[in-house]
Structure formats: C-alpha cells, structure tokens
Specification:
The complex is a heterodimer.
Chain A: E1 2-12, E2 18-28, E3 32-36, H1 43-50, E4 58-63, E5 76-79, H2 91-101, H3 107-116, H4 130-142, E6 148-152, H5 160-175, E7 179-183, H6 187-193, E8 196-201, E9 204-210, H7 211-218, H8 222-231
Parallel strand pairs in A: 3-7, 3-8, 5-6, 6-7
Antiparallel strand pairs in A: 1-2, 1-4, 8-9
Helix pairs in contact in A: 3-4
Chain B: H1 14-28, H2 40-47, H3 51-63, E1 67-70, E2 74-77, H4 84-104, H5 110-130
Antiparallel strand pairs in B: 1-2
Helix pairs in contact in B: 1-3, 2-3
Classes of the chains: A alpha/beta, B mainly alpha.
C-alpha cells in the first residue's frame, strides 16, 4: 500500500526561492524512505509539505490518501530539524503539553524511550545539550503510536552510542508495520537503515529508487554514487 | 548465524551479503537440511539489519531453492540445489585466479609460484584435518 504520493510537487517561497521544482515519488507502507541531498536541496521543505505545515505552490501531495495542508496528518509524528522549541519550559512540563495535543501519545512508550536513551527529565529544555535535546525530540516522536514517522536529521549532535540506538529504533519500527521518512546528510547512516531513497539537488530529483538498485547499477558505494549524481553524472 | 558479518557500506547490497553467507552455510552443511531458520524478526534484531532486507534475502533464497517456508511455522533449510556447489566453486576460483594473475606479474619463476600455491593448499588441508 502507498502511504505518500507526490506528483509534480512545486514549492516557491514568497521571496522567490524555488525549493521544489516538480518532484514525483511514492512512499510505500512498511518501508524506510530516505531523503538525501546537499544543503539547500529542499529536504526540509519536502518534509514540511508531507506534514501539511506549508502549502505546495503547484502539483499535489497526498498522505494516507488525503491532502495534508492545512489540517496536518493525524497518523504521523515528526522530529523537526530545528530542535529548539519551548526552551523556557521544564522538560516534564513539555512532555505533558506535547502529550495533550499529540495524537496517540503513550506515556509508557515515552518512558521506554527515555530509559533506552538514558534521558534525564530534570531541568529546563533550554538547559539540555544538543544531543540530549535530540534524544528528547526522538523520544517524544516515537512515544506516539502512529503509522508514519517523519524524521528530519534525527541523529543531529548524538554520540555514536545513542546514534546506534536511534538507528535500531528506526529499523525496529518496520517490525511494527510502520513507515519512516528519514532525512539526513550523513550518508553512512542512511545506508545502514533505508530501503528506498530519493536524492534531491536544488529542488530536483536526481535519483528515486531502492538503495540496492543504486548500488547494483552504479557498482559502487552509496557515497560514491551520491557524489557522482550530485556532480551531474547520469546513472 | 550470529557470526555473520554485514558491511553496510560495501558496494554489495546487504541482502546479497546475507544470501552469500547463508548459501555457503547451507552448501558446507553448517546449516543442515530441515533445520529451522531464525524468523525474519529475530534475524533482523540479531544482525541489526532492516527487517525488509532480511525478508528480501529469504525470498530470493526461497526462489533459488535453498530454503522453504511452512505457513505458520517459519523457514527451513532445503537440500542444496543441484549445481549450487559448482557455482560457488567457480566463483571462488575466479577470486583465486585474479590473485594469481597479480602474483604472476612479480619477478618470480613459475616453479616458485606453483610451490607457494601448493604449500598453501597443503597447509589448509592439514589444518582442516586437525580440527
């Protein structure tokens, strides 16, 4: 079954920046789908379109068969790129507030995540290190029992041990039949988890297919294939 | 199966690495006919690999006749398909051939090359016999 379908998706911001120039792709249920690209490729814009946080300029995107904008996607949770909201709140308070509006939030799932990541819940959000902040956001997202997880740079600032835990969590979510959209600029970790991927550059798709096919067609590693595509070689 | 080594960053896709490892275990008899295989779930957790990758490897192993599935029970090892050993031997020989060609380019005599190769073969056979 298809979870997300984008057709000729275009996003032009008010300042004239063309972030997405007509992209087409599908995300299938139960798969880990990576969104790759150099800085400024349009990755975050694409994720925001999926979640209905911004309105596409042209083309269409549907998630679970519905248009995400403006109501959002109830059956999805999100780890945002900028992990700096609610700085002034106590962590425990932020969890309560999040739980009050996040669909299908489970405190027992949250406690499980916090334990797994050795996340301490004392103090204010603003006092957390970058790594601990990421842990908090990932724990909150996975505490929601939803069918789609959209993760924007979910390992930002994490040490190798916690990073490994996050990657394991992503892989395990497939066992529960969940779908994951994962954006990252760290190719080695994408290579470890994803089934399917798109590579974006300046708002255009350079690749759309499985990781296995990319390696088999290019007969090389993901990082070499990525570099040659971004430099402008064809497949 | 826990000793299986996965290299995520190789140019060989992970599902192919798993297939090759399992084919060798089955041909060598380390995995015996009728033996039950770990479930996709267990294998994914043990190897820390995306479960879809294990499912793909199992599906292809099944198509090629190395394993079979019993509804509700799981996967079992089948009798190694005909010619499967010959196919793997050809692949191994190809690897040895490449290395020998590299050695041949060095200034050593044919006798020396043969002697070294023979010594190696003898060493491996003796090791195997001892244990």
């Amino acid at each position: 079954m298809m979870v997300i379908k984008a057709e000729s998706l275009v996003k032009i911001y008010h300042n004239g920046v063309k972030a997405l120039k007509g992209v087409n792709f599908e995300v299938k249920e139960g798969r880990i789908f990576a969104v790759l690209g150099p800085n400024g490729a349009g990755k975050t814009t694409l994720l925001k379109c999926m979640l209905g946080m911004i309105k596409p300029t042209d083309g269409s995107i549907s998630v679970f068969g519905k248009t995400p904008f403006p109501d959002g996607v109830k059956n999805a949770s999100f780890v945002p790129e900028g992990k700096n909201l609610y700085e002034w709140l106590k962590i425990s308070k932020m969890v309560d507030i999040f739980a009050s509006f996040a669909p299908n939030f489970s405190f027992s799932r949250f406690e499980g995540m916090a334990k797994r990541f050795s996340l301490k819940l004392d103090g204010k959000v603003g006092e957390l290190s970058q790594g601990n902040r990421t842990k908090l956001y990932v724990s909150l997202a996975f505490a929601q029992d939803v069918n789609l997880y959209v993760l924007d740079e979910p390992t930002w600032g994490l040490d190798p041990i916690v990073r490994h835990e996050v990657l394991s969590l992503v892989k395990e979510s497939v066992l529960e039949g969940k779908t994951v959209v994962y954006s990252s600029h760290i190719l080695s970790e994408v290579e470890e988890v994803c089934d399917d991927l798109i590579i974006l550059k300046e708002g255009e798709l350079l690749y759309n297919g499985t990781l296995d096919d990319l390696k088999e067609k290019k007969k090389t590693t993901l990082s070499n294939a990525f570099l040659s595509l971004v430099k402008g070689d064809s497949l | 199966m826990c000793g299986m080594k996965i290299d995520y960053h190789s140019d060989v896709p992970v599902y192919k690495q798993i297939i090759t490892e399992m084919v060798d275990l089955i041909i060598s008899g380390a995995l015996k006919e009728e033996e039950e295989l770990p479930s996709i779930r267990k294998m994914a957790l043990d190897l820390n690999v995306n479960p879809n990758t294990i499912a793909k490897a199992y599906m292809i192993l099944q198509e090629k006749g190395y394993i079979y599935s019993i509804a509700g029970v799981g996967y079992k090892v089948a009798k190694p398909p005909r010619d499967s050993m010959q196919e793997r031997l050809n692949e191994f020989e190809e690897e040895i051939r490449k290395i020998l060609k590299k050695m041949r380019k060095f200034p050593i005599s044919n006798d020396e090359l043969q002697k070294r190769l023979f010594t190696l073969v003898k060493e491996v056979i003796d090791d195997g016999d001892q244990g």
